[in-house]
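Collaborator request log, item 7. Partner lab (contact: R.S.) asked for a structural prediction of Ribosomal RNA small subunit methyltransferase G to inform their binding assays.
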Amino acid sequence: MNELVYGLSALGISLNSVQLGQFETYYQELVDYNSRINLTAITEYKDVQIKHFLDSVSLVLAGIKGDEKLLDVGSGAGFPGLPLKILFPAIQLGLLEATQKKARFLSEITVKLGLSGVEIISQRAEDTAQNPLYRQKYSLVTSRAVADMATLAELTLPFCAVGGRVIAPKKGDIEEEMDRAATAVKKMGGRVFKVIKVELPGLEDGRKLVLLEKISNTPALYPRRAGIPAKTPLI
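Returned to partner:
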């Protein structure tokens, strides 16, 4: 895990032996499971350390304290939620993943990593956000899903408690995308708080963290039915 350790040193973070072992196990299980179902196109040891593990942990630049209630929307193979949980064991983590096969991997890897305080939710975000058990219950929500910011706002902000934040990793020039998302962010009860540049070893490709703050309750009609936020963003 030399690449990960080096990258974390730039953040002033060091891993203990247990955490190093967990990341090693995570890599081995990811590659093994990926041979049976498609979890990720990134499988080389160095690339996983940088593009999955370090990229996930870079969310600490947004001021994560380590004791939050965090929801990872569209978690896939567990990024960024599980690397953050390894780093901060006190986080109460929800992993929301609609694809059953991926959700099964998340359940299995959570056990193999010896993690507690993790809930796997295998449902669509649009449906889950209307459930009182999850709606406006999280202090932090994140998603690495490849989606327009307007769509992401509708799929993430309804989970945020007022005063909570959404952390959305993005890359490249996002000014136009953020302009398009202004309506969706406002309708969900949010505001753009700040945009943070990510400049870490191996991640010098224009990565950014978009921070949204939840300032009022999301109206009951949002999010709209499954698939609509992606097909017809609120712009």
